[in-house]
Amino acid sequence: MSAYDYDLFVIGGGSGGVRAARVAASLGKKVAIAEEYRFGGTCVIRGCVPKKLFVYASQFAEAFEDAQGYGWTVGETRFDWPKLIAAKDAEIERLEGIYQSNVNKAGAEIFADRAVLEGPHEIRLIEDGRRVTADKIIIATGGRPNRHPAMPGAEHCITSEEAFHLKELPKRIAVLGGGYIAVEFANIFHGLGVDTTLVYRGKEILQGFDDDLRHELHQAMDKKGLRVHCCDTFERVDMRGDGTLAATAKSGEVFVVDQVMLAIGRTANTENLGCEAAGVALDARGAIKVDDYSRTSAENIYAIGDVTHRVQLTPVAIHEAMCLIETIYHDRPTKPDYDTIATAVFSQPELGVVGLTECVAAERFDEIEIYRAAFRPMKNTLSGRDGRMLMKLVVDAKSRRVLGAHVLGHDAGELAQILAVTVKAGLTKDAFDATMAVHPTAAEELVTMYTPSYRVKGGERV
Ligand code: NDP
Prior knowledge:
It comes from Jiella pacifica. By secondary structure, this protein is α/β, with parallel strands linked by helices.
């Protein structure tokens, strides 16, 4: 008989926590999981899923325009924001129910409560008041948007969390930030007809992505009338008498809008969690420090997902959960594999990437070859839309291995998933060349770029 109430107690019912709880329970472990808000976590409740539904909603305006080039007469169209919110909420509720019932089916006990650590094996349930013990504990409490408290007027701003529940669609919005969330939401709002400005402190949006694609996306956004204002940031936001907001930028420019959205990174949810009492150390940003196996500084306590500030992506949290189960319940110490993680930014056009950018590859390899195709996809011909697709393969000249694949355009996220298999498998450019094209598709460009567009040797383009 165990000396503890549970073999495993999981704090947090997001993607990582739920996966760990479900799999551990299915192995016959006595598992409990506490979630203070709603099952599904950031991804399902206020992140990936509702965001993608918003992306779909925001694409119709262009689709209606494009349809006319294909012979359709589109009648009067009207967008109803409350209707979208209600439909989205219903879908999220459905998914939340599935998450919860999967936990139930696996046999884990659910606490709809906030859980805090009181010691290395002790957990207190706040509402319930109960104190329980567990042999092992997994912290999977995720993160939340930074709210920029140092900026005067930050309290007038929204973050992605409020964006999912706005009563009204603003007429004008300014989005601060140049990362995933800022870029995705700026495109969503623009697509829904909101006059949108994105303000970013750096030289170009989406730091860390391939420069070519960053630039091309920026231009595409500009062309649509979505203003991208770089090398600037907001210094203050004031509420005006008429309820509108005046966001004053460092440059002196004042943006008068109905909403200001902050998308400036996320913070780990570790406040008042009892980490100190349990001997769980935090890093300077307040995220939980873990070793290569997701173990915290407390021997029996582990942490996975966004709360550890490693890679803030749902599939990564799930992977960390699965590796942890291998480590602690199958006696097979397994480190999560962070090499070659494909990702997509659901901007419009979309960006899907995997592997090294040209810039990083040029630093790491003596000579690289760049295969690049920029073209107008067939879909844009009859519609008359001038949007281009950009595809780029980064290849090590010596081994011929494809180091990175980058796509900007329709369904780039879908393509990134398949490209990820090829890059992860270490396939060479010869394997791409030997692959028959699927015609007519946009993706066929990926296997028909036979000669390099240019080479980069010793950091210089040759
Ligand atoms: P990101 O880290 O992607 O971007 C944060 C942005 O805010 C950067 O442009 C950063 O600038 C800027 N910034 C940071 N601090 C300040 C400040 N004080 N003032 C002005 N600007 C600031 O974070 P997000 O919030 O966009 O997203 C969080 C994470 O969630 C992402 O990193 C990603 O892992 C995940 N995510 C993934 C999605 C997907 O897979 N499609 C979608 C949404 C989120 P700088 O570049 O100069 O540092």
